[in-house]
Amino acid sequence: MNTEKLYLPIKRELLEFYVFWVAILVFKYLLMIAQVGLSRVYFRVPLNEEDGKVLKAAVRAHEAVDRNRRAHLNDLENIPFFIIISFLYLLTDPSVGSTKLIIRIYVLSRILYTFAYTVLKSVIRVPIFEVGMFINGYLTIKVISHFS
């Protein structure tokens, strides 16, 4: 069994920064899970028949619950990709300042997207979403070009 340690050339400052902001994204995930569950209880919108018996309500659709659920689904479709590609980006020895800016903007865009979609119910969410997609695309291209 090979017990040789692998050295990853990541600046400690960037790794600590990355870990902190990824933890913020994970916390946002957890809040969205709670938000969906609480909105189901508040609006008495059970997910299935057995939950309906507890809530004494029929399974049905509800706009507020569905918005929360779709916002959470959007997080599930986008945040894991960012977590992976941004870690790989750290392996390219990027500049500290620009990397911190990119990560902050992405996290902020995810928070603002959720707020715009669930609270404001505004189309402003589209350009906010595009900011996050642009960042994911940029990071992906940088990683591919660095390791090709």
Mean pLDDT rating = 94
- What percent strand? under 5%
Top CATH class = Mainly Alpha
Number of helices: 5
Q: Architecture, according to CATH?
A: Up-down Bundle
**Global geometry:** elongated
Uncertain residue ranges: none
- How widely separated are the two ends? 30 Å
Q: What kind of oligomer do you see?
A: single chain
Our count of domains comes out at: 1
The percentage helix is: over 70%
- DSSP strand count: 0
Looking at this structure, what is the CATH superfamily? Membrane associated eicosanoid/glutathione metabolism-like domain
Please summarize the sheet with the most strands.
Answer: none
Order of helical and strand elements = HHHHH
Q: Nearest-angstrom radius of gyration?
A: 19 Å
Question: TL;DR of this structure?
Answer:
The protein is mostly helical. 77% of the residues lie in helices and 0% in strands.
Any descriptors?
148 residues; mainly alpha; Four Helix Bundle (Hemerythrin (Met), subunit A); 5 helices; elongated
Structural description of this entry:
- The protein has 148 residues and is mainly α.
- Helix content is 77%, strand content 0%.
- The protein is built from five helices and no strands.
- Helix 1 (12-42) packs antiparallel against helix 3 (63-90), helix 1 runs parallel beside helix 4 and helix 3 (63-90) packs parallel to helix 5.
- The mean pLDDT is 94.
